[in-house]
Amino acid sequence: MLVIGDEILRGNIADANTAWLAKALHARGVDLVRATVVPDDVADIVATVRDLRERVGPHGAVFTSGGIGPTHDDKTYEAIAAAFDRALVRHGPTVERMQEHYDKRGVELNDARLRMAALPSPAEVLFTEGTWVPLVNVDGVYVLPGIPRLFKQMVGAHLDRFRGPLATGADCFTQMGEGDIADTLSEIAQEFPTVSIGSYPNASGDYSKYKVKISLSSRDQEALAAAMQAVRERLECLE
Amino acid sequence: MLVIGDEILRGNIADANTAWLAKALHARGVDLVRATVVPDDVADIVATVRDLRERVGPHGAVFTSGGIGPTHDDKTYEAIAAAFDRALVRHGPTVERMQEHYDKRGVELNDARLRMAALPSPAEVLFTEGTWVPLVNVDGVYVLPGIPRLFKQMVGAHLDRFRGPLATGADCFTQMGEGDIADTLSEIAQEFPTVSIGSYPNASGDYSKYKVKISLSSRDQEALAAAMQAVRERLECLE
Questions:
Q1: How many Å apart are CA B126 and CA B135, to the nearest integer?
Q2: Is the ipTM of this complex over 0.90?
Q3: Which chain A residue has the Cα nearest residue B24?
Q4: Fewest CB atoms less than 10 Å from the CB: which of A111, A130, A160, B128?
Q5: Does the structure show a pLDDT above 90 at A204?
Q6: Which pTM does this prediction carry?
Q7: Residue of chain B minimizing CA distance to A176
Q8: Could you tell me if A186 lies within 8 Å of chain B, comparing CB atoms?
Q9: Residue A104: other Cβ atoms inside 10 A
Q10: B56 interfaces chain A, CB cutoff of 8 Å
């Protein structure tokens, strides 16, 4: 995930898209392996998106959020084109959809707005019902708007493309302290290398319900069940 | 900012520390230039913290969040030590503070908990009133817990260290569309290169109050005032 925008790095706007995407991908068995926020700077976006593209490998995908509006601080299409040696070409079907959208509202489709239809090319351009905004896919880099409502709508409409082997999860809530469960968890983690085991102290600081959550997840259901059984036998999980 | 944790990348827990830090630094004139989330993976943490350290230069700082608890999935001290060729050494003053903390609660200071006092060394170790958790500074890399309450308390207690030339900001809220203001904003941005100008459509989609927020900020107060005057003269700002 690549989040683009000075406003995020200044704390003026909190990024809600990464958390949403993380959850949506996880539910489909896809691992989010990295998320980075960069400023509205073409060179930084170019270098970072190339790095992320390489990290995720040929079957992976990168999602970008932000920087595709009509104003001077919107630099994402330009940067994506530069990163993958594409041209910026006015995209006919996008112009048609914009035209229809703005005509309905009596708003002029001026040059500034047409910048939003100058897309990296060649690229795959996907449309989403309910918005004219194109979802551009350049070599597995999916370019999305920063506005959370649109980001979710557009990713959600194309989630079919993203699916991995599903992981199953199970939690143990306990009143034991992290320091008391650490050695046992470490043993269990070593016994079950295909099971990911995390331990999370209750961040609220209110331990009336539980002190620590132990989360197990795995793509191997038998291993998960066996590891969970080991946790329940060796530690005190609440019912 | 480097956020460490599988739980964030799975969407189980949303990272609240980046947004808080961004705002706190911005208010003190310090630019946050990048934020990255990585999994609980030593090699990934090592490579990323080295990269971030280099990016921010000798006067910059890196903040890490998460991975300093007592369990097997807590790998941050180990990774920071590896990244900067430090040893992990049990830190006497931290042990004393832990001892006092756990004694009060009748909790055993076992080996697992003592892992939390095995700190990269040499390093500067800062303490914060109200918690035994040390704030370790290795060559400008400040190592913090992921729990937001502690993260804020500990950064907050040492914010004096971080100060830059203050930027001042001013906003214009408008009912004009981004496509209608784009050319003018672009001109103004070119006329005032020391002023950063961002334009943000109202993400709620409810335009009854405003459609677009234009945010100006600069460390040059005169330039800011002149740019804001230009915005008010050439665009329709709401009162």
A1: 5
A2: yes
A3: A11
A4: A160
A5: no
A6: 0.94
A7: B107
A8: yes
A9: 8
A10: no
